[in-house]
Amino acid sequence: MDLLLDINVAVDVCTRRSPFYQDADLALAKCLYEGGRLWLYAGSVQTLEYVTRQELQQRQPPDAPPLSAKQLARQARNLLKAFSADKGWLAALASEGEVFDSDDPEDEQLIRALDRFQPGVIKLLTRDQGLIDAYLGKTITPAQYCQLPIKNSVLDFIDLKIQQDAIRPQLENDIHRVLHHGQYIMGPEIAELEAALAAYVGVKHCITVSSGTDSLEIALRALGVGPGDEVITVPFTWISSAEVIGLVGATPVFVDIEPVSFNIDVARIEAAITPRTKAILPVSLFGQMPDYAAINAIAARHGLAVIEDGAQSFGATQHGRRSCGVTTIGSTSFFPAKPLGCYGDGGALFTDDDELAEKIRAIRTHGGIRRHHHPLLGMNGRFDTLQAAVLLAKLPHFAGEVEARGRIGARYSEQLKDCCITPQVIPGNTHVYAQYTIRLAERERVSEVLKAQGIPTAVYYPKCLHEQPVFAGLGYRWGDFPEAERASREVLSLPMHPWLTESDQDRIISALSFCLKT
Amino acid sequence: MRVEALYDHGRLEFTRPLQLKHECLRLIVEVPDEELVTLMPATCNLPPEVLAQAQAMRDRLDASRHAPLPPDDELPELTAKQRERIAAFALREGR
Predict the structure, then answer these.
(1) CA angle (A398, A399, A402) in 5-degree steps
(2) Of B24, B25, B86, which has the smallest distance from its Cβ to A50's Cβ?
(3) Which of A251, A350, A365 has the alpha carbon at shortest distance from A307?
(4) Nearest to A69 among B69, B78, B89 (CB)
(5) Chain A interface mutation, best of B11, B43, B91, highest count of A Cβ atoms under 10 Å
(6) CA-CA distance, A323 to A310, in Å (whole number)?
(7) Burial A488-500 (b: 16+ CB within 10 A, else e)
(8) Which pLDDT score, from 0 to 100, does residue A384 have?
(9) For the structural domain made of A163-392, what CATH number should be given?
(10) pTM for this entry
């Protein structure tokens, strides 16, 4: 449960107001211990500052020289800065402005602010008896909160809240800017984001689109892949990679993976190439790139295009070059759980080829190259301006998050190496661990044991694509891709995100190690 | 209105069904003095990690509060607007 702090509680804590501050200190610590968040209401700042200053004035030690008005003002601000450093600021929204019919507009604002959360996930921490009596289900005193039973925290598989808390001021600014300028489709944030992402990847063109799946389909269309063509990809991946090949009328041709990186087995690609092959679509699965130097060399020998499905690998590198920047077209996804995720669906294509970029831009917008002129068949595939604003707020933090992912993944591998098969980083690669995926024989039992201890896990992917009914017509059978099939029965992904603390990671490692030894 | 309730291992239950207007309601319960062994403090169920975290937060705030302040003449003057605001808040608090 989160807590919104009423001014009286905040001032109790800041000014050590007896006898109230002890319970308040404990309530705040308990909330954090249980994984809750502490909020201050931005609309209360002036009152908070004044009341804190007033309390400090009244509580000056009698044996010390009294502080001047200026010193008191400085001390109040210093204290409030220290106090608010580990708390979130809850912005005052427009619906909290019209409170003039209320007996107490400030209290009314606080109560209304709770309504933006789902019922029961937040309470106002207060010792204002009038408020408690009037809003019993929405309020709680520090003493009452301390007496609630301790909840065992359930870890998030991917915790997006911490990141949102860290970027909230910029995020809210950027979103509100879009709301006010009103260019919801292809607003200025789109071009700004595309320029920033192209520079990050190190290519000439970035074209944002409506999803990672649409991104792959647009890439195929731009390359002219259609009925009668074949596209080589892997059977161990999310369905999009093969689905889009079917959607453009072509045929997916699966090549087995190699077991160490879960990526395409490069040595098997050439055997799958036929006169109808038009492109190779490797997937940089779980956050690590396959050997693109080798894949590009094969493609060049056979006159094929290469599309990197970098939905999970954005930020990863291979010999210093970034994912999405090493093939004819790179494609990524901004699905919320991806390394760079927005708050909805989104994706992007990357290329150095001016002509391809032009086609991709046209296909993204109904095949039009200028208003009301459509030489190509396209789609409604534009990225929302609001989502671009979200990514622009996230982008300055992305390099640090990529570094943290690598560090956390390496720590998992070091500590789990003796009890299960851990992912290996291929020499020359960096890994962004969109998923931290181990292999083990009895994953259902392990998953259940961890779940009972508040540790979620996930299986990516429990079935290979050639097992999916939609691809039954391709004629593949069980046994055609033994490495992919074995992986689909053994993989288990552990909680992974850039803000996973060492103590939470220790909890996961310890639970998993114990489970595997018993 | 006084109603009867039974206390059973930490839970209170009315002896006859009551239909109340609100789903949550604060009630005052009269506990016979001879039953009360100890009024437990709020901290009684809290694990040591919470107590340690509370202490760490307290130490951080106390350090901020006790940090030396610049002498008065080195601080910028309060602006007229700041003084007015302080006066306005004082009036409000005194109402």
Answers:
(1) 85
(2) B86
(3) A350
(4) B78
(5) B43
(6) 6
(7) bebbbbbbbbbbb
(8) 98
(9) 3.40.640.10
(10) 0.88
Put simply, whether A74 touches B (Cβ < 8 Å) is yes
pLDDT at A407 over 80: yes
| Arithmetic mean of pLDDT, A80-92 | 95
- Secondary structure (3-state) at A5: strand
Closest of A466, A413, A445, A425 to residue A515, by C-alpha: A445
A381 touches A359 (CB < 8 A)? no
B26·A133 Cβ contact <8 A: yes
Contacts of A70 in chain B (CB under 8 A): 72, 75-78
DSSP symbols for A44-101: GHHHHHHHHHHHHHHT--TTSPPPPHHHHHHHHHHHHHHHHTTSEEEPPPGGGT--TT
pLDDT of residue A339: 97
Q: Are A308 and A330 in contact (CB under 8 A)?
A: yes
Extents of the domains making up chain B? 5-30
Cβ distance B78 to A70 less than 8 Å, yes or no, reads: yes
Q: Look at the domain A2-153 and name its fold.
A: Rossmann fold (3.40.50)
Architecture of domain A397-517: Alpha-Beta Complex (3.90)
Nearest residue of B to residue A145, measured between CA atoms: B42
Least confident piece of the model among A56-60, A312-316, B56-60: A56-60
Q: Provide the mean pLDDT of chain B.
A: 86
